[in-house]
Amino acid sequence: MGGKPQKQVKVYSTPTCTWCKTIKRHFDQHGIKYTDIDVSRDQKAAEEMVRRSGQQGVPQTEIGGEIIVGFDKKRINSLLGIK
């Protein structure tokens, strides 16, 4: 990632979500640090997620303040400088 500080990454997820597991595995494989927020256990976080994105589905990823709904690998990689 070229020595630049990594953007803050948050993943809004649930334990049963297959795409949530996929996105977290993708971050792990690329050494991306992230905060995992389980919206099935944290009602305030779930409400904040919906307020910010207008969507209830997971995964949702926040990268440097930008919200991505679903596993949009191309956009995620672009925002994080993953080649």
Secondary structure layout plus pairing:
Blueprint: E1 9-13, H1 18-29, E2 35-38, H2 43-53, E3 60-63, E4 66-69, H3 73-80
Parallel strand pairs: 1-2
Antiparallel strand pairs: 1-3, 3-4
Q: What fraction of the residues are assigned to beta strands by DSSP? A: 15-25%
DSSP helix count? 3
Which stretches are poorly predicted, pLDDT < 50 over at least 5 residues?
none
Biggest beta sheet summary: 4 strands, mixed
Give the CA-based shape. globular
Helix content: 25-40%
Written as H for each helix and E for each strand, in order along the chain, the element string is: EHEHEEH
Number of self-contained structural domains: 1
CATH architecture: 3-Layer(aba) Sandwich
The third-level CATH topology is Glutaredoxin
Spatial strand arrangement across the major sheet: 2-1-3-4
Question: What is the rounded distance between the termini?
Answer: 9 Å
Question: Would you kindly provide a written description of the structure presented here, covering whatever features stand out?
Answer:
The structure is a single chain. By secondary structure, the protein is of the alpha+beta class. The protein has one domain: 3-Layer(aba) Sandwich (Glutaredoxin). It has 3 helices and 4 strands. The longest helix has 12 residues, at about 20-30. It is globular. It starts with 8 loop residues before the first strand and ends with a helix.
Supply the key terms.
83 residues; Glutaredoxin; 4-stranded mixed beta sheet; alpha+beta; 37% helix
